[in-house]
Amino acid sequence: MRRSDSESIAFEESDAADAPAPTGGATARPSLDRVFSRLDRLDRATRWVVGLVVAGALIRLVLLGARVTHYDEGRVGWWALYFLESGQFEYRYIIHGPLVQHVNKFVFAGLGANDFTLRLFVALVGALLPLSVLLFREHFERDETVGAAFFLALNPLLVYYSRFFRSTLLAAAFAFVAFGLLVRAYDEWSVRYVHAAVVFVALAFTAKENAAVYLLVWIGASALLLDQALFRTGGDRSGFERVRDRINRFDRRPAVEYLADFVWHLAVAVVLFLAVTLYFYAPREPSAEAVGFWQAVGNPALFPDLFGRTLDDVVEGYSYWFGGTTDAGCRKENIIDAYLCFLGQELQAIAQAAFALVAMALVGFLAERYGRANQRNVVLFCAYWGFVSVLGYPLGTDIANAWIAVNALVPLALPAGVGLALVVDRARDSLHGDSVRFGVTVFVLLLIAGYMGLAMAEGVYLNPASEENELVQYAQPADDFRPAMSVLRDHAADHEGTDVLVVGSSYVRDSPRSGGIEPRCSSIGDTLPLQWYIEAYGAQGDCVGGAEEASQQLDSGSVDPLLVVAPQRLQNDLGPALGGYEAEVHGLRTYGSKAVFFVDQSPSQGAAAENATAVRPAGESAD
């Protein structure tokens, strides 16, 4: 007799309960089944987005530590490691927001300090960013949602700067999520999303000071949408009537109740913002007698002093960044020429690694603005936000770089998703009809895929430090000098005295700094990121300004470093005093700035001899 479906299910469940527990590798199967079962319950768009997140994480984490550290990465990494080792922290505006120092303190404590862990936090935020498009899912079709996630996950420029220890992507990501939460608050008419958005806005401010610019851009984009609502009346209603209809969506309650709710939620938002920013910006002091964040937590009477000190630091930092640039950057005689120079370099980077995203964003914007009867404000808002950022950020920078494009590409991913979905839809519609249109649209899609794949391979993996790569900033070392510095990693712990000696007037300060990056005698402008590796390897550094003085100290044996670093022009002057060293020449910047690394060969030879003795069979002589 055949069982019914319900009986079969009950029978199978009973058998499963009575069956012996799996052993060995079979224990992983139920867990995997549960994972896949949960994925099956997700809608198709969400599953695609999750898949893109996984793909984005893989391409960001693979060979994450392969590129030698950039000047900025080394400087911020040094301070994060200093925070871990000393327990002392204060906001140093010259290295931007404090968030990454707090996060990397814990990363280094748990995983160690190296180039991979240095960039891990930014890489993970970049990988998870495509999930944010789900906040807008009520405004987009499935293909549009997946298209936006596709560009956030796989755009080469965003991938490059997700693999870069810098806060630009963090600020852009947190601001984008905050905007998505505000849209969600409007969709569900729920204030909890507003409070969550305030937290992410605060995180954006702790990541980088330019978060203030995002708020200004949002005001401008909102003004454009308001003007559009007032101008495009539709039918016989005026613009004011349309806006009034939107306002009438509110519950009709007494004005006093609205005012009370507004004041309450505003107070909550202010407290949330101040709590997040104070936690990250407030100083940390290891001494119990000092005024630091944890001392104030233990003694609330110290909070006024703590808040005042923190506010002074923040005001000083923001005054510096928004008070005008001090560097000519492109070294032009006037601000117009400098702006055009910076804009040109940004556009070159976009052309190399983000042309598909920007082109699809333009298609999506035009289709939304002029091709739809009912325009979606979310699409237009992000288009205004992104295109203004392309034109505006070169005005506020003082050094040539490509990372400013991140501020524009993140919001442009939404209209780009609309544009890509439009192309895919045209290809689908013409599949069994117009073969010419089908061929053209498929060609466009293949062109986008090929362009992004080539840009990813060349710009992100094969040539991440090349002068010809438009994504590379000048302070990126051209050569990988880490093999030369590995002698510090391997032998500094057992070496006595100075481990690394920095030589040369351009590498050494006239007088050591009173504090800060060590060795304090080194000139960080010309030698970073060497100090990051010296600190990460636990080595001790010292400096000598002249080659003649350095040679005398080396000849006399007063210093016996494992590594000597000097400008290449001093190679012949130092060579005679470094007979047991091997010289290697590496570029500390994208072009020029050659340095010679003299590596002591005796430690590695000694280690090799010890290893050979250790593995020699018993009874066999050393001869």
Report on this structure:
The protein has a domain at 482-609: D-Maltodextrin-Binding Protein, domain 2. A hairpin with a 6-residue loop joins strand 4 (581-587) and strand 5. It is built from 26 helices and five strands. Helices cover 61% and strands 4% of the residues.
CATH structural architecture of the domain at 482-609? 3-Layer(aba) Sandwich
Approximate strand percentage: under 5%
The biggest sheet, with number of strands, parallel, antiparallel or mixed sense and barrel status, is: 5 strands, mixed
In total, the number of strands is 5
| Dominant shape | globular
Average pLDDT level = 88
Uncertain parts: 1-24, 605-623
Side by side, the strands of the main sheet go 2-1-3-5-4
Tell me the name of the CATH class of the domain at 482-609. Answer: Alpha Beta
Stated plainly, the CATH topology of the domain at 482-609 is called D-Maltodextrin-Binding Protein, domain 2
Distinct helical segment count: 26
Gap from first CA to last CA: 85 Å
Q: Which percent bin holds the helix content?
A: 55-70%
Radius of gyration: 29 Å
Class of secondary structure makeup:
mainly alpha
SSE order and pairing:
Blueprint: H1 5-18, H2 28-40, H3 44-61, H4 71-86, H5 99-111, H6 115-128, H7 142-154, H8 156-162, H9 168-188, H10 191-207, H11 211-231, H12 239-247, H13 255-281, H14 293-298, H15 303-321, H16 335-353, H17 355-371, H18 377-392, H19 406-429, H20 435-462, H21 482-491, E1 500-503, H22 524-527, H23 530-536, E2 541-544, H24 547-556, E3 563-567, H25 571-574, E4 581-587, E5 594-600, H26 602-615
Parallel strand pairs: 1-2, 1-3
Antiparallel strand pairs: 3-5, 4-5
Helix pairs in contact: 3-6, 3-7, 4-5, 4-23, 5-6, 6-8, 7-19, 8-20, 9-10, 9-19, 10-13, 11-18, 17-19, 18-19, 19-20
